[in-house]
Write a structure and sequence with these properties.
about 550 residues; Nuclear Transport Factor 2, Chain: A; Elastase, domain 1; 11-stranded mixed sheet; 6-stranded mixed sheet; 9 helices; about 25% helix
């Protein structure tokens, strides 16, 4: 997939003072419909209309008109953020145009929307994060300094805070409110945001009238998984500079591996890296470079995406965190990944861990941003499983277990996608009372993906999987299940929930397959984890 336009983001390594990370900048997209010309006595060739331009024109018309859930008041405006290609790789058959909303010039948090079209510009799906009508006084009663004080009190320990920004807050509110958005880093009090030792970066929203914390959004995504070696003779990109090789991939911009302790890119004299020691940082970086390159190739070759951000860029990695964990967007590496150790001091740079953390990056760089509780860890687990399948390395045979080869905490795998309840407190089935832990809450969606990909009784050596409604299912294969899930990610909006994921995946399946066969498979898999029909979900008729 290519991002044909995207908002730019600024990244600073080892920032002490955080800058606001959700500033909205409209990305202007140049594109006009092809015109035809005629000369006397002869006809000039007529160029076919540019499908990207058709998608933009149709989507802009949808958000500026009164289509479905995108109705808005005169004070609200949609700002186009990006255009993404989905569907079949290199076919230009599906487009997803993302937008953010403003109210009287202020960003609306939870006001984002996505419009999908086909190559002819026909609108297929319109999804808005919120249908709330906004009517708020945009003059704050609370001073910015007091908002910062209130936001910092949401943390037990604060290592830094950024400049407050005035916004309209919709997400998580019974009605829209004026709020201050304050970036804060440290150790949060919120159990749903637990990342091992509570290391956290949040955008804290303080009601600009009452002074109370109204909402917070985690900017750090954590994961724990297997740290396995992928064997010897692994090939990955490096660069030569001044007689020294650097662990920077020239074919995949922004992909480097860095020593956490020194903040320096790994270097070598002979371009032969690493050894068999699981405590060697260079060896950990060999795994990272190999796996990240594989995930890049997976996205490009299976789903047509160009890089992690869709514009041909990846994100770097650090190895050596002195913590039993791994993170996306850690405070030491804003916009990148950081890998720590297990309880035996082995670096946890195995396929499912590395691909999981970059899966958080993909979540962050698709419409709506990081999904948050309850689905964000499942999103990352799915990309871990997909990358294992794509690489198909004999040292790490594709499976649906997370942490299967290194005992992170001495208990074997930490999650089982085919039967999540094998880990205490991780449910197989959806309910409205999901666990507060983001990792435990991943269970039903991991289970759904497995059932969609493999079914209940696979014949390829994968394990039997139970269902919550006693049905028997046949899978569509992990590659096609991943295609549906990836296209659903292009329909994300802020504040994703299990019901919203059901709707997004059904819309994606319908857009991809006019026969409704995949739609019916997706629907059956959701029913099998006890998530039934939702208001506003699509129907499909062949």
């Amino acid at each position: 997939m290519r991002v044909l336009s995207s908002a730019s983001t600024h990244r600073k390594r080892r920032a002490v003072q955080l800058t606001a990370v959700t500033g909205l900048t409209a990305a202007l997209i140049a594109g006009t419909l092809a015109s035809s010309s005629f000369a006397t006595g002869s006809a000039a060739p007529i160029d076919a209309p540019d499908p990207t331009a058709l998608a933009i024109a149709s989507a802009d018309q949808a958000v500026n008109g009164t289509i479905g859930s995108l109705r808005k008041s005169t004070a609200e405006q949609f700002v186009r953020l990006g255009v993404f290609e989905g569907g079949q790789a290199d076919k230009q058959d599906l487009f997803y145009v993302s937008y953010n909303k403003t109210y009287q010039g202020l960003p609306v948090i939870g006001g984002d929307a996505v419009v999908s079209t086909d190559a002819a510009g026909k609108v297929l799906t319109t999804i808005a994060a919120s249908k709330a009508t906004i009517s708020v006084d945009t003059t704050p009663r609370l001073a910015a300094a007091r908002a910062t004080t209130a936001a910092r009190k949401a943390f037990t320990t604060v290592t830094g805070s950024g400049t407050p920004k005035l916004v309209v807050l919709v997400i998580g509110q019974p009605k829209p409110v004026l709020a201050w958005e304050v970036p804060v880093a440290g150790k949060a009090k919120h159990p749903a945001h637990d990342h091992g030792n509570n290391a956290s970066q949040e955008l804290v929203y303080v009601d600009a009238t009452t002074g109370k914390v109204a909402h917070s959004a985690e900017q750090t995504a954590s994961g724990t998984g297997t740290g396995i070696w992928n064997g010897s003779g692994l090939s990955f990109g490096t660069t030569l500079s001044g007689g020294t090789y650097r662990m920077t991939d020239p074919a995949r911009p922004s992909l480097s591996c860095i020593d956490y302790s020194t903040n320096a890119v790994m270097t070598d004299a002979d371009n032969v890296w690493g050894n068999t020691s699981k405590t060697n940082k260079v060896s950990g970086c060999v795994d990272v470079m190999y796996i990240a390159a594989g995930e890049w190739d997976l996205l490009k070759n299976w789903y047509g995406r160009n890089g992690l951000d869709g514009s041909g860029r990846w994100a770097d990695a650090e190895v050596g965190l002195p913590d039993v964990n791994a993170y996306w967007n850690h405070s030491s590496n804003i916009g990148g990944v950081v890998f720590g150790r297990n309880n035996q001091n082995y670096w946890i740079t195995g396929t499912d861990v590395v691909a999981h953390e970059y899966g958080h990056g993909l979540d962050a760089k698709t419409p709506g941003g990081i999904s948050g509780h309850p689905g964000q860890e499942s999103v990352a687990d799915i990309w871990g499983a997909l990358t294992e399948a794509y690489l198909n390395n004999a040292n790490d045979k594709p499976d649906y277990e997370v942490g299967e080869q290194i005992n992170l905490v001495g208990n074997g795998p930490i999650r089982y996608m085919y039967n999540p309840s094998r880990v205490s407190g991780h449910p197989n089935c959806y309910s409205t009372s999901l666990p507060s832990s983001v990792h435990a809450a991943a269970g039903p969606m991991n289970h759904w993906f497995y059932l969609l990909a493999e079914g209940t009784n696979p014949t390829n050596g994968q394990p039997v999987s139970p269902t919550c409604n006693s049905t028997t299912l046949t899978g569509i294969g992990i590659k096609e299940a991943g295609r549906i899930f990836y296209n659903a990610m292009l329909l994300k909006t802020s504040g994703m929930s299990y019901p919203k994921w059901r709707i997004a995946t059904l819309n994606a399946a319908k857009n991809l397959d006019a026969t409704c066969a995949k739609y019916n498979k997706v629907k059956a898999a959701w029913a099998a984890v006890n998530l039934g029909t939702q208001p506003g979900e699509p129907t499909c008729t062949p």
